[in-house]
Write a structure and sequence with these properties.
mainly alpha
Length: about 80
């Protein structure tokens, strides 16, 4: 069995993905609280944009991390 190749970028990708997920989790918690405070539909719709952006940022960071791990052969390449 070959050794697992891990480089400095692995840690950077992981940190970026973890931070993006934390930001999204914070945005989701804020959104739940925001909705429960009786905001107008327009205010909720504006917040949804930020929530969607935080989700997309987290997904993008996770995808980059997964792709990097695949380059190392740590994760299988799924067609």
């Amino acid at each position: 069995m070959s050794p697992i190749r891990i480089c400095h970028e692995c840690e950077q990708f992981l940190t970026t993905a973890a931070n993006a997920m934390r930001r999204h989790a914070e945005a989701m918690r804020a959104a739940i609280s925001f909705v429960q405070t009786g905001k107008t539909e327009e205010q909720v719709d504006e917040y949804k944009i930020r929530l969607i952006e935080s989700f997309n940022d987290a997904q993008s960071a996770w995808d980059a991390y997964r792709s990097h791990l695949r380059e190392h052969g740590i994760l299988p390449v799924i067609p």
